[in-house]
Amino acid sequence: MRLESDRVLLRELDIKDAYGNYPAWLNDKEVCRYNSHGDIPYTSEMAKEYIEFVNNSNKHCVFAVIDKKKDLHIGNISLQNINKKNNSAEYAILIGEKDYWGEGYGYEASKLLLDFGFGTLKLHRIYCGTPVTNKAMQKLAIKLGFKKEGIAKDAFFKDKKYYDVVLYRLINGYA
Q1: Does residue 167 fall inside a structural domain?
Q2: How many domains does the chain have?
Q3: Residue numbers of the domain that contains 46
Q4: Tell me: the pLDDT tens digits for 74-87?
Q5: Do the domain assignments include residue 37?
Q6: Alpha-carbon dihedral of residues 12, 15, 19, 21, nearest 10 degrees?
């Protein structure tokens, strides 16, 4: 499966990605400051096992985010925890290449993924959550049309501290 826009290609993760920059992103404290990675060393072997798992799962659609011009893997994006009974999934994104932060690639990739989720997968609800300290993700969620559902108190533990998580949702592609 391949999804494309002007600057971005989304493609299935490939085993070769486990031997590129991908594992390094999950070892970078700055890249991982708002997610559950970065607490233990992440190896190419762990990435390979993850890629094999998600590529053989009907509950996860994980794509590599590629800068088409440079043919460079810059991040990953997914619909995970797909629940076919409820027609719902959790949206997640990680732009690992810091040079691409704030350049609109995450938004462009997200639009492709959400269109795929609502159009192709026929999902009814897509949701996400992020620590209250992650202002960039909150801004992206709002720009994508997500609406705030609430706050999950002390739902994220990182660096020996609990953080509240802001919860967002899209229903049928609309807020």
Answers
A1: no
A2: 1
A3: 2-124
A4: 999 999 999 999 99
A5: yes
A6: 10
